[in-house]
Each structure stands twice: as structure tokens, then as C-alpha cells.
Specification:
The protein is of the alpha/beta class. The strands form three sheets. The protein has a three-stranded parallel beta sheet with strand order 3-4-5, sandwiched between helices. A two-stranded parallel sheet has the order 1-2. The longest helix is centred in the C-terminal third of the chain and has 20 residues. The two termini are 38 Å apart.
Length: 218
């Protein structure tokens, strides 16, 4: 939530809806819309669906070291049902966390990869190994900052330039050039004889768009 609050304070583009979901809200968050997950995700599902309706893009920022995985997956699933592009940046728990929590986080992240258009999982142990001799409180603060910076980077291409930079860009470059990406059928190639990477009965060696039969409108 610290990362999400910082992202809201630093944004330079319009946001249609900003929502905090959890059980323990930070100070200063009284004025924003909140989803209380104390009773679980289901009681908030309808409210969450109403928030997503009409959105052009949804960005999920979550720390899977806490029980936020189910809420993030539910939001991503509703985005997919409503054809709303969904991007997610999540922090995975430290290895010191309880085994049950780590297992729940791994399962939730696997589901998030399936439901969202883009999901980035930040390995908290990698952060801890690169910042030795830090206290747990310092590591938590560093993890929140890492989450914030990654979420801001993911959101940056969708945020218009502000102030003088916007005018300069418009004057020198004109209308942005529309880029295109051709998606063609792909085969395992030299790895055809290897055992496929199976998960829940699906072959993850096949690209997502091909495995799910997604058609890209030209």
C-alpha cells in the first residue's frame, strides 16, 4: 500500500479510479476508495467489477507477502471478462515467510500470469541478497520502493508527457507513429524432442496467444 500511495502521489496523468484493497490501511488514505478484505474477496467482487467497467487500463500493485494474491487474481479475472487490459506488478514474499504463505503466493502468481495481460513478479530474496546487513524494517522499505519504481516504469508508456516536455514533443515529433507487431505461429524448433513444460495440463512452451487461441485485430 505504501508503494501504491506513492504512485498515486507521483502520477502525472489522469486516473479514472484509484482503489486501495486490504485489511490495514495506511494513514492519509481515508479520502480514497477502499475495499476492505477482512471478510475475504467475494463480498467485494461486485464493487470491484463496477470500478473496472469502462476503464481503458488497470494497473495492479500488490505485495504477495501479505494475503493480497486472491484479490489481485480476482481483479485480473474481472478485467479479462470485461476485455480491459490488465497490468500487474507484485512483490513475492521473502524466503523467511511461512511455507504456507510462500505456497499461496506462488499459486496466486501462477494464476495472475494466466489472467493478466502482463504480470511482473519481484523476487524479494534477490533484493535481500543485494542489500546485506539491512534490518527487516529497512528491507520492507526497500521492497516497497522497488515495487513503486517498477510499477511507475510499467505505467510510464501510458502516461502523457507533462508541462513543457509535452509541448516540445508535440512540436518536434508531431503525431506518434503507430507501431505494429506481427504474431505468427511458432514451433518448439530444436526443442521439439524435449519434454514440454507442463502446468495444469497446458504446454507452456507454446506462446500464450497461440496456446489460448487469441486473435489480434489488425
Amino acid at each position: 500500500m505504501r508503494a501504491a500511495e506513492s504512485l498515486r502521489g507521483q502520477r502525472s496523468g489522469p486516473v479514472a479510479a484509484y482503489v486501495l484493497a486490504g485489511t490495514d490501511f495506511p494513514e492519509g488514505a481515508e479520502s480514497v476508495e477502499r475495499l476492505d478484505l477482512s471478510a475475504g474477496v467475494e463480498p467485494c467482487a461486485s464493487q470491484l467489477g463496477q470500478i473496472i467497467i469502462g476503464a481503458r487500463l488497470a494497473l495492479l500493485v500488490a505485495d504477495f507477502g501479505f494475503p493480497a494474491g486472491a484479490a489481485a487474481v480476482s481483479a485480473a479475472r474481472q478485467c479479462r471478462e470485461q476485455s480491459t487490459p490488465c497490468l500487474a506488478v507484485v512483490a513475492l514474499p521473502f524466503s523467511q515467510a511461512a511455507a504456507e504463505r510462500r505456497q499461496e503466493a506462488d499459486l496466486a502468481y501462477a494464476d495472475l500470469l494466466e489472467e493478466s495481460d502482463l504480470a511482473i513478479g519481484l523476487d524479494s530474496d534477490l533484493l535481500a541478497s543485494s542489500l546485506p546487513d539491512r534490518s527487516p524494517a529497512e528491507l520492507d522499505k526497500a521492497a516497497a520502493k522497488w515495487l513503486l519504481e517498477c510499477a511507475r516504469g510499467v505505467l510510464a508508456p501510458f502516461t502523457p508527457p507533462a508541462g513543457k516536455a509535452a509541448g516540445k514533443t508535440a512540436a518536434t515529433r508531431g503525431a506518434p507513429e503507430q507501431l505494429s507487431l506481427e504474431l505468427s505461429e511458432m514451433t518448439p524448433g530444436i526443442f521439439s524432442s524435449d519434454n514440454p513444460s507442463q502446468y495444469r495440463g497446458q504446454n507452456y512452451d507454446i506462446p500464450t496467444f497461440q496456446r489460448k487461441g487469441i486473435k489480434i485485430c489488425r
